[in-house]
């Protein structure tokens, strides 16, 4: 974290953990296909830590692929919701700046929508410490696809109301001497307008109650229902994936 504002935004998620788990999108199957391809090993049987796991959206997908996954989550509310939804998943409290794992003990570290909450000067070396040689660090996020007209319009309205950077830098990639490969994966889901607005309300800008957010969501609902009178929208996303393999010892 870089300042008190960032810390406040990070803490805000625990206050809306159930809503987060209900309305944040999952990820397409092609994402884990790409992770396996770039990492050079199968997820089945791999020792994986999903850091900043939230309510377990990515954790559950990794486990379904057969990974031996541990969820790492610092927030009390999010951790409680993850345990409620996925009681079979091993869960530890912690964050990417000081990982609760032995050196060289993991095949894969994943950060789903969470790397930007870490201090890269600490989380980068920690990733290298806990990964085995040949293990992989991957960072990914679901970003709104602004090549779709209605989504671009909504993004413009949010920035006009609250300024640029409202979404934070969820595309931030770790540094530290590793060579990252990136892929962009497009996908979509069809949901009711109210579910879309509920999803929007789970971003930290809205959770901390920035001035004008309630009025913005109410106005946005009216506008979207004018655009989509049937009451449904097709949300389009771009999964921004970065993966680096720790070099083999030599």
Largest sheet: 7 strands, mixed
Low-confidence stretches: 1-5
The best one-word shape is: globular
First-residue to last-residue Cα separation: 34 Å
Q: In DSSP terms, counting alpha (H) and pi (I) runs of 4 or more, how many helices?
A: 10
Mean pLDDT: 90
CATH fold annotation of the domain at 4-145 and 169-190 and 236-245 = Rossmann fold
Rounded to an integer in angstroms, the radius of gyration calculated over CA atoms is: 18 Å
What is the CATH-assigned architecture of the domain at 4-145 and 169-190 and 236-245?
A: 3-Layer(aba) Sandwich
Count of distinct strands:
7
Give the CATH class of the domain at 4-145 and 169-190 and 236-245.
Alpha Beta
Q: Structural class, from helix and strand content?
A: alpha/beta
Percent helix among the residues? 25-40%
Listing every helix as H and every strand as E from the N terminus to the C terminus, the arrangement reads: HHHEHEHEEHEHEHHHE
Trace the largest sheet across and list its strands. Answer: 3-2-1-4-5-7-6
CATH homology group of the domain at 4-145 and 169-190 and 236-245? Vaccinia Virus protein VP39
Percent strand: 15-25%
């Amino acid at each position: 974290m870089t300042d008190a504002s960032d810390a406040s935004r990070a803490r805000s998620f625990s206050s809306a953990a159930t809503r987060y788990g209900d309305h944040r999108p999952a990820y397409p199957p092609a994402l884990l296909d790409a992770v396996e391809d770039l990492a050079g090993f199968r997820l089945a049987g791999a020792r994986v830590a999903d850091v900043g796991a939230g309510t377990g959206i990515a954790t559950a997908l990794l486990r379904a692929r057969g990974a031996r996954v541990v969820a790492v989550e610092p927030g009390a509310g999010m951790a409680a919701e993850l345990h409620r939804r996925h009681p079979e998943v091993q869960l530890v409290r912690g964050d990417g700046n000081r990982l609760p794992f032995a050196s060289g003990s993991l095949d894969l570290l994943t950060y789903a929508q969470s790397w930007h909450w870490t201090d890269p000067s600490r989380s980068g070396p920690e990733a290298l410490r806990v990964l085995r040689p040949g293990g992989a660090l991957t960072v990914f996020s679901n970003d709104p696809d602004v090549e779709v007209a209605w989504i671009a319009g909504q993004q413009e309205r949010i920035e006009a109301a609250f300024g640029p950077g409202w979404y934070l830098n969820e595309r931030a990639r770790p540094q530290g001497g590793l060579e990252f490969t990136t892929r962009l994966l497009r996908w979509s889901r069809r949901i009711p307008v109210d579910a879309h607005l509920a999803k929007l309300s789970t971003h930290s800008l809205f959770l901390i109650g920035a001035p004008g957010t309630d009025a913005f969501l109410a106005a946005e609902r009216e506008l979207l229902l004018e655009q989509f009178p049937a009451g449904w929208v097709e949300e389009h996303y771009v999964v921004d994936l970065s993966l680096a393999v720790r070099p083999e010892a030599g």
